[in-house]
Amino acid sequence: MQVTSLLRYSGVCPFLGHSTATSLRSMASTNVSSNVSSLTAKAMTCPMMGPKLASISQARTYASVAGNKEVEEIHKQKNVQFNNAEAAKCPHAQAAREAAANVKETARTAGRFDYQQFYDAELQKKHKDKSYRYFNNINRLAAKFTIAHTSNVKDEVNVWCANDYLGMSKNPVVLGTMKRTLDRYGAGAGGTRNIAGNGALHLSLEDELASLHRKQAALVFSSCYVANDACLATIGAKLPGCVIFSDSMNHASMIQGIRHSGAKKVIFKHNDMADLEAKLQAVPKETPKIIAFESVYSMCGSVAPIEAICDLADKYGAITFLDEVHAVGMYGPNGAGVAEHLDYDAHLATRLSSDPVKGSVQDRIDIITGTLGKAYGVVGGYIAGSADLVDVVRSYAPGFIFTTSLPPAVVAGAQASIAYQREYKGDRRLQQLNTREVKRQLNGLDIPVVPNPSHIIPVLVGDAALAKEASDMLLSNHKIYVQSINYPTVAVGEERLRITPTPGHSTEQITHLVESLDNVFNKLELKRISDWKAIGGRAGVGAPNTIPVENVWSDRQLGLDDGSAPTRLANGAKGVVRDEAVEVAQKRLTHLLGADAGPALASIPYV
């Protein structure tokens, strides 16, 4: 255990509560005897730690590992008769019996593969490189969003890292629609789409998604991991001699899909158009090519130069595969993602149409994938594109064909969520305003945030163990849940805390978050912006000659220029539910669920 790990207990230990990371390291490196450090000696005087350390020391003595011969010799030296009949009562004899049993078991399993040892060795690798994942028990409360309880239902914490970006998982129109669907159609879909799971609700959701992205067709999967894997694997395998150009920071699902396709993979530097073009030039124009990339990269918040990639695709005869997982619901006048947002006014002017805006960036993308489990607050994934492309995936992708269909209540709730967000953009605008405010306050305290133009706030720590300690300290000392992000999700040395504000976070919660982070940075002596700058910078923090970031959402689009921007929550104010958007969302499924929303919808509080 690192010395700084002890600081997680500072809330219950008076000594640790008055200690710093520096003082603890100093005591740990100073010995009072040949084998005992000052820190251990101090712990021995503790009424809690002292007895435990003494028992550990005793357990490590010679007798605990002695064999039969040594045990008998010990008894002779003490003038104690060694009686086999009484051996069961003797700890030395017990140790000998256990040692003999181990030898016998080793002989029995000789020549066999040691599976248990293999599992243990693999796990030890994860512990050694600090990439072992610890999952916190976090239970988000629909009626108290953004609050959750831990394993103890009375222990409530503020959640600051969920991907439920807009709080749609507890939106009353989503919950009400899902309850009505559950009562009418039951819990499960009944099988794959080919057997019993191809219901009217699934088809209706796919029509909604195709309309959202102004594409001819869409196809729903159990998750976007599966959608990315299935689509890239299928299209990459079917296109003869296909070469897939993949951004170096693409998600694991895309990497897996490319691997499963068997196609040649060429990796280009993240968002580097010169590198991409150089690699495209090396492949004949007539060779089928796919450029696979994301709009918003979730761990650093960077945004792809989508239009420039489309230009290169046209120039070198490639098709484009755009993952909008962290952008759908969050960008654009309809919430279709960054590709839509890049032609904001044109899409806003034609928002009631499902026809493509000719020549727009979104229209130029061949394949769009997205999720129903982040901004839309439910679960599932999808692809959208031309009717024939979608049909090829539907007809050939094992990940679609052999997977049980999503439950009716899930797909109905997802469509209600999409319809609501298409009608009301206030949630995503308020989310952006909260993101700007948190970034502003952190910058004022010299707390390092990886620069980006999106809704993600990656706070750079730069050390796996310290990132975990910071996360633990925020949870235990400040009742704030922010997960640490370590390798392999991010590069070694770029470990971070990933913060995602929502429209449901109040000004008071923002103040508490920022003050708590400042406290943790002081306690653990984490590097600030100025520290990173002094050593040349890392992950864009403190780097020389950096260009200021221009946000995806402009002040005009957020309503800051004309005063129409939504107001941040404060002083116990509740979140807004737009009645007109609720009405539109409810009408989407009237033909299947009936016109009456029912009492379930009206009784759900929205916070």
Automatic annotation (TrEMBL):
A molecular function GO annotation: pyridoxal phosphate binding
Pathway as given in its UniProt record: Porphyrin-containing compound metabolism; protoporphyrin-IX biosynthesis; 5-aminolevulinate from glycine: step 1/1
Domain Aminotransferase class I/classII large: residue ranges: 159-517
EC code(s) of this entry: 2.3.1.37
One annotated GO biological process: protoporphyrinogen IX biosynthetic process
Top-level EC class: transferase
Cofactors named for this entry: pyridoxal 5'-phosphate
Keyword set includes tRNA processing: no
Example of a GO cellular component annotation carried by this entry: mitochondrial matrix
Protein localization: Mitochondrion matrix
Key word Iron present: no
Chain's role: Catalyzes the synthesis of 5-aminolevulinate (ALA) from succinyl-CoA and glycine, the first and rate-limiting step in heme biosynthesis.
PANTHER family per the UniProt record, alphabetical: 2-AMINO-3-KETOBUTYRATE COENZYME A LIGASE, MITOCHONDRIAL, CLASS II AMINOTRANSFERASE/8-AMINO-7-OXONONANOATE SYNTHASE
Entry's family note: Belongs to the class-II pyridoxal-phosphate-dependent aminotransferase family.
Name the record gives this protein: 5-aminolevulinate synthase
